[in-house]
Amino acid sequence: MRAVVLDGSEKNDAALGKVRAEVGKNLAGMGWQVSHLPLCDMEIAPCRGCRACWTRTPGQCVLEDQGRQVLAALCSSDLAILLSPVVFGGFGAVLKTALDRCLGFHSPFVERCDGRFRHKARYSRKPALLTLGLLTASDGDSQRVFHGMVSDLAWQMQAPRNETLVLFSRHSQAATAQQVREAFARVTARR
Amino acid sequence: MKEVKRALLLIGGPRGLDGTSALLAEHLVEGFSRLSVATRREAVVNVVESEAQMEELLWGVDRADLVVLVSPVWMQGLTGPVTELFSEIVRRRGSVRSIRARAFAAVLYSRMPEAEACDAAMAICRQFARKADFSWRGGLRLPQSDVLDAAPWFQSIRASAVFAALRDSARCWTAGRPASGSAVRLMAKPLLPWPVYLVAQSVGLVREARKNGVRELLGHRPLGR
Hints:
The structure holds two protein chains of two kinds.
Chain A: E1 2-7, H1 14-30, E2 33-38, H2 52-55, H3 67-75, E3 79-87, E4 90-91, H4 93-100, E5 106-113, E6 116-121, E7 128-135, H5 140-157, E8 162-168, H6 173-188
Parallel strand pairs in A: 1-2, 1-3, 3-7, 7-8
Antiparallel strand pairs in A: 3-4, 5-6
Helix pairs in contact in A: 1-6
Chain B: E1 6-11, H1 20-34, E2 38-43, H2 44-47, H3 51-63, E3 66-72, H4 80-95, E4 103-109, H5 119-131, E5 135-142, H6 152-158, H7 160-174, H8 181-188, H9 194-211
Parallel strand pairs in B: 1-2, 1-3, 3-4, 4-5
Helix pairs in contact in B: 1-7, 3-4, 7-8
């Protein structure tokens, strides 16, 4: 089994560093093959919106930088772990810029499913999604928006399982460790 | 009463001053000009690549009475560059306390058939306004944005109501009010019935792929199974 960590923490982000460490421990214990992508250290240009990944080089981005690694890892994983500060109820710019480059993950065609619309899947293998967002202080509105946004994203990506956790930087390492462990257990549980 | 003398339009699309965001912004500019509101447009994608341009834009945000984001919705959220800019604005407004609260509004669009595809991103905009201490003037959601890439004659038939709603919203925002209910409804109303839109969208994609010689490869899986 393969997992990819799309690490959207910014440089010297100690609080997300703690979460990252917990993610590492959990993955190590599972014996999975893991790719850790520290997005802020990678050269990833913003998506140009050219749609070449749909109608010129289907499934592949034409920009030749490390953004391609993100899409490749996502397409070959059983579990994608998204790690990001919660920014206005969404992802931080580092993770969002990388995700924007993954348009080729989907087919360009749109389908109606359960009364809603989404892109058709390009790949039959879709990763389960574990999203860990970090807030510096409790903020009910941001948490609600974040949960709603990730839930929509997981539905769009047709993730077989989706688990979203908002953590707080003031929490102790032990509390964070427990929450992350429980989230891992839920998202990797056989259904 | 005119509450807005200077408006700043943030063009969030990746093609800067030459894409769908810019086209929509053009009609806002037209609405503002009729009311003698000075407008300035800035392409976010250019700004985030240059520290000097970012500083200049942040200065422009401080001076504007109204800031409007016009942006596509990607992956359920705002684009990476728009998120980066928003974070910079909040950082700036947090450190310069003399800046008084001003107004912020958003025009978001999606190629999905229904306006609900913009909801999560609109909620993010509202959170941004709160964090940046802007007063939130609400937002407009436009579905089926691919129609705006269609031939001009088709665009003028289907999208004229959209452009009128933008001009009307400029009027409301200038007066310090949220966009009118009718403008919000007009923008959110699908330009085509969804089955027709999906067929037209698919035909457009296939035609584009054929032109690029990859018609048979549209469903290609180069990176997995």
